[in-house]
User: Which sequence fits this backbone?
């Protein structure tokens, strides 16, 4: 296999990987899922805090193609409960 063939093969593999990632995002959006960055920005929290919440069972995650996602309903419920706690 020549160098040009190897480069073209690599480019095709990378393009396919990018396409899979785009499809994954679409599936997550259609299922009403939020990714880790969405949740962190909504609550203005760090990776560690989000991990702690998962470990405590405050937020359940779903893994799709190796990426963590959170159900929008679960995130909104947690947001309401956190807001109530801060008002008290």
Assistant:
């Amino acid at each position: 296999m020549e160098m040009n063939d190897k480069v073209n093969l690599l480019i095709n593999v990378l393009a396919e990987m990018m396409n899979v990632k785009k499809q994954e995002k679409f599936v997550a959006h259609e299922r009403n899922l939020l990714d880790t960055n969405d949740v962190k920005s909504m609550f203005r929290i760090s990776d560690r805090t989000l991990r702690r919440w998962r470990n405590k069972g405050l937020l359940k995650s779903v893994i799709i193609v190796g990426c963590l996602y959170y159900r929008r309903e679960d995130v909104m419920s947690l947001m309401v409960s956190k807001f109530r706690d801060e008002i008290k």
The longest helix spans residues 3-30. The first strand starts at residue 33 and ends at 35.
